[in-house]
Amino acid sequence: MSQAILGISAYYHDSAAALVVDGNIVAAAQEERFTRKKHDAGFPENALEYCLTQGGRDLKDIDYIVFYDKPLVKFERLLETYLAYAPKGFRSFVAAMPIWLKEKLYLKSTLKKELAALSGLDEKNLPPLLFNEHHRSHAASAFFPSPYEKAAVLCLDGVGEWATSSVWLGEGNRLTAKWEIDFPHSLGLLYSAFTYYTGFKVNSGEYKLMGLAPYGEPKYVDLILEHLLDLKADGTFRLNMRYFNYATGLTMTNRRFDELFGGPPHKPEEPPTQREMDIARSIQAVTEEVILRLARTVHQELGTEYLCLAGGVALNCVANGRILREGPYRDIWIQPAAGDAGGALGAALSVWHEYLEKPRHANGADNMRGSYLGPCFTNEAIRRYLDKIKAPYVQIDDQSLMPRLAEILAAENVIGWFQGRMEFGPRALGGRSIIGDARSRKMQSVMNLKIKYRESFRPFAPAIKIEKVSEWFEIDRASPYMLLVAPVTPQRRISMTPEQQQLFGIEKLNVPRSDVPAITHVDYSARIQTVHRETNPRFYSLLEAFESLTNCPLLVNTSFNVRGEPIVCTPEEAYRCFMRTEMDYLVMENILLAKKDQPSWQESGDWRKEFTLD
């Protein structure tokens, strides 16, 4: 009889659910994709229902339910922090306590009530409810689906219960905790402090800070290392809490921080100045140095050839690329849902392998299955919706569709691409994507300003056939989850003129850097997704068709959404996003729609106010 484990992460940010059956990942999804509220932290009712449906089970058929952290330990950390900083922390103590006393302290009973309401079961008849440690959930999500029998595991995030950085040894079906750095000393919160200070939103704008960094100069590195961060040779560190407010207040940084960097935090939504670019470059450089030192130390201590990464900081793909190029490991593997959403999956895998002591057989395969773990829709279901709203379309089989799409793309059209199962994690990987021709000089600005409605400096990523990646980029291995940055190969680059080299900041943006300018960042790098026939055959065959037409085996790939909106999940959401933006075509499975053929689209009110900007 098979055993099914349901993992849940909720109540902080990025709620999610995951279903593991006999050690195999059957389904996983974030709640935001169903509620359309980005980073939704509520009980993941819709994600749970989806996982159960995908697994063909009711809640009564589940053997264990597991929550991804231990709320009582987290409460202890809050209390100890407030006491340690008393009386300074009183304001945030007063703000946090009602929520804790009402909801989070009694999380076990809250979860049972929600699960009973979802299933119709009496609370006494629910499956056993377990609680895993936050960083153990991260570590499990990184190691257990990885291809390795033995690996070091490094988890870096804001904070779990106490840990902000933790090191583990993964062997077979066991994870052994080695050491950790505890709150308030946190690389994730340091990076978030600078996210806040440069005018971006904490817990969602960190990747913007990373994207802004190449436009600046690392002018503030010494200042950061002298005043904010005591960094040791082995990568361990302590923060100087005199400059930070997050342990006790309602903001990330304080007046001392402002004085150090010569002014108050940058106002949200105002264009970044050269100062913000230089600050972004500086904290990115410091972060990379910390991560590289930690990775080397872990290698010295554990002597493993492989490294697995998870936690929100593991989404820093520039740092990941440097670990791969400069670090001592044969290879690294990063959990694509590295943040709290992935904790649901890690908790479920931890129960299977550690609590139930079930063996694990690493065979060199990546068991995330491309991270295509969400819902999918048939041609029939798509047609039903389009017929209902009287939207004109044609249905074309793959053999004719792929060459047709290649021609559409080569003519500099932008396509909404909706097929197969939705991705788990923050990146669109060819299930729910917006795609375009990377050779186009106008594509980056068209996609940013007319389709995504977001900041002009934001870079786009290439999706490339795995076999061709080394011909275009300085990388010799798979990067299926868009979590590694690598330089464009020298023969593909366009050298800058002496006049162009004098440009500063955002002025650099419109200077083409390579044969594929739409995906080449100002420092000649790109955030790479390798596409594999085994995990996404249709996306792979589209790239093949485009290559046979243009001799270029890659496309621009960005997530199918506008700024502030979660990635689309259903055909209805895909069509709505298509009609609201200046996309030219939409393809859903085998169904092709041209914008010029669609009826006029009208909505009451300004739809852009529907989403809170991230």
Write the topology of this structure.
Layout: E1 4-9, E2 16-21, E3 24-30, H1 32-35, H2 45-54, E4 64-67, H3 71-85, H4 90-102, H5 107-119, E5 129-131, H6 134-143, E6 150-156, E7 163-171, E8 174-182, H7 187-197, H8 206-212, H9 221-228, E9 229-231, E10 237-239, H10 255-260, H11 274-302, E11 306-310, H12 317-326, E12 331-334, H13 340-355, H14 379-388, E13 394-395, H15 398-410, E14 415-418, E15 432-436, H16 443-451, E16 461-465, H17 469-472, E17 484-487, H18 498-501, E18 525-531, H19 537-550, E19 554-559, H20 571-580, E20 585-588, E21 591-594
Parallel strand pairs: 1-4, 4-5, 6-11, 11-12, 14-20, 16-18
Antiparallel strand pairs: 1-2, 2-3, 6-7, 7-8, 9-10, 13-21, 14-15, 15-19, 16-19, 17-18, 20-21
Helix pairs in contact: 3-4, 6-13, 7-11, 11-12, 15-19
Structure explained in plain terms:
It is built from 20 helices and 21 strands. It has a 9-stranded mixed beta sheet, sandwiched between helices. Strand 9 (229-231) and strand 10 (237-239) form a beta hairpin. Helices cover 35% and strands 17% of the residues. It is an alpha/beta fold and 614 residues long. The chain starts with a strand and ends in a 20-residue tail after the last strand. The mean pLDDT is 93.
CATH architecture of the domain at 379-610: Alpha-Beta Complex
Structural class: alpha/beta
Under CATH at level 1, the class of the domain at 379-610 stands as: Alpha Beta
Helix content: 25-40%
Give the gist of this structure.
By secondary structure, this protein is of the alpha/beta class.
List keywords for this structure.
614 residues; alpha/beta; DHBP synthase; nine-stranded mixed beta sheet; five-stranded mixed beta sheet
